[in-house]
Amino acid sequence: MESAAKTPKSLTLPSTTRITLWLLDIGLNLIMRKDGTVNRGLLKLVPLTPPSSEPINGVKTYDVVVDPTRKLWFRVFVPTQYTVEDLPVMVFCHGSGYIVASADTQLYDDFCRKFARELHVIVVSVDYRLAPEHRHPAQHEDGLDVLKFLDVEENRSKWLPGNANITKCFIAGDSAGGNMAHHVAVRASQFNFQQLQVQYILTLFETSPRSSVAEERMVVGLVSIQPFFGGEERIGSEIRLNGTAPVLTLKQTDWFWNAFLPLGEPYNRDHPVVNVSGRYAVDISKMDLPPTIVVVAGFDILRDWQIRYYEWLKKSGKEVYLVDYPNMFHGFNLLPELPESDQLILEVKDFIHNVLNKVFTALIRNLKQITLSLPLL
């Protein structure tokens, strides 16, 4: 789980997967106009999935509007076979370069449905504003505002099922959503959320300050699947795989960043929102960031940026794990016909289990300290 595996010389994929990737690449190039705008009309051909109160593959869904003025909403995925259990909440940020896709895009609806069913979690899939119509920081603001929305007791009781435990909140994302998940987690670590269930127990007896109690995090874990990072420099995997990897080219990633970043200085690809671990990186060493799992693939042109991200987190003193799929490509997690997409689910499931075990252990330790500090009656 820790070391990067050796990448094979060639990529072995089923013919059906190759055809799917070829069609996706054609579609992506058609919607990216030369003037930097997106052909939204063509995107109307992309299949969407409506919410379903009746379970589909063991999961029911419904949509919740956070702010109608900016069309911010999220889709809730509820696994129906775990109606009694205390389930974690996973806030999910979809990928696609910050320019396309949505919480109801069929590809992501299917993926989040699988996450909810296999991971035994309540998935909250954020439908954030897209670039270039809405440039940075709109997307990260939307992600944080969903966390703020869920932090309000009235909203939780109205919009989340009764077995959802917000004190076990994870944030996840793939590609651009992985970039977004990181930055939202950083923002969340600096925001004073309202007191949650675990905090009620601890503050009841006037325990130690907020910063010293691990269970008080709003976000207890971060799942970063092939996060979209970059920089002005062209590094190993970009040079080696550009034009040969089945998904993503430098031309496409440059286009995405140009659409996402605000115009003018200081916004280029070395800005810390893109080059998260570069020379202008934010100092996270003293931030209370959650444990993180970083997923990389051998045939992803972003691979070396993602490994730099992992190494930066580790160097900054954060708990972080690396999972490498040497014979996979960018976005493999969205294709259920690939066995590696199922393996990824198992890796994330183990990560969630380990994180929650540590949270529970820390809680018991703190409760013991509280009990010992109580005056004898």
From TrEMBL:
Record flagged with keyword Calcium: no
Keyword annotations of the record: Hydrolase
Domain of life from the UniProt record: Eukaryota
Keyword Transport found: no
InterPro entries with a match to the protein in the record: AB_hydrolase_3 (IPR013094), AB_hydrolase_fold (IPR029058), Carboxylest/Gibb_receptor (IPR050466)
PANTHER family: ALPHA_BETA HYDROLASE FOLD-3 DOMAIN-CONTAINING PROTEIN, ARYLACETAMIDE DEACETYLASE
Family as reported in the entry's similarity comment: Belongs to the 'GDXG' lipolytic enzyme family.
Name of the protein in question: Putative alpha/Beta hydrolase fold protein
